[in-house]
Amino acid sequence: MSRDIDVLVLGGAGVDTIVHVPELPLPYADSYMIQPGIETRAGQTGDFVALGLHSLGLRTHHLDLLGDDPEGDLVRALHRDRGIPLTEVHQSSGTKRAVNLVGPDGRRLSLYDISRGREEDRLPERTVRDLAASSRHAHVSITHPCAFALPILREAGVTISTDLHDWDGENPYQEAFAYTADIVFVSTTRLPDHERTMRKIMENGRAEIVVATAGAEGAYVLYDGEVTHVPAVPPLTPVVDSNGAGDSFAAGFLYGRLAGEPVGRCALYGAVAGAYACTVPATRADAISRAQLLDQVPEPEAPAAAR
């Protein structure tokens, strides 16, 4: 069977409105005068993962629901301008949107508009099956319609990854994603004991690798029974915004995994890609290129006998 798609990205298409604020948390006030202003651009978690994978040279295809609205037009334009194939399913309630409050230190607080979704929303089974049949791997966003695509992907025989984002380790909503995927990414933000949660994911599901990202503290990788700490990589230019850093980490890690690299090197790729994302202003959608990534990750030394 021909596999002409390296990674099928499901879900996570939408737009963010960026609002720069003087501090986070933002104290109550009647009004604030802000700079550099308010700007709306395409790019939510699935868009950023797709962009990151595409920039690293992987054949990437994005599938999600989009509305016939200005926000949907922005998402379509992003994919068209970057050359990322997009299969869209009509969303009558509109394209997903969010407001990101961004502080001077690059931290963000996201407000998601959940009115842009319905209980009955689904990705068409035939479309998912056809695209999965042509894919090596699927990365699944934790949006409602994607939960129903998980069994279809499993039947298709593709490997699956997902990002649980700021899961608390207890909310049952994320469990279907956590226990179905082969590679699971999760943030440590709301985890009182990240190692316990990582092992819980592996014990209750089919994950081969669990990665817990911890921002400036780096990341933790559970593989082959061992938890390894991966230090953060200092970015080459100043940090301006953390938006999309986790998505970029996932893209870098998956690039290494699909290339057959050792898990430790995959995590290093992820750390470099995530650091690059922190140097990109929130008002732009950008990702590290393969050349930039490989330039920052030296080739491993050959064994002495091979020299």
UniProtKB/TrEMBL annotation:
Record's keyword terms, sorted: Kinase, Transferase
Pfam families from the UniProt entry: PfkB (PF00294)
Boundaries of every Carbohydrate kinase PfkB domain copy: 34-286
Record GO terms (molecular function): kinase activity
Electron transport keyword on record: no
InterPro entries for the chain: Carboh/pur_kinase_PfkB_CS (IPR002173), PfkB_dom (IPR011611), Ribokinase-like (IPR029056)
Keyword Transferase: yes
Name assigned to this protein: Adenosine kinase
Originating organism: Streptomyces triticiradicis
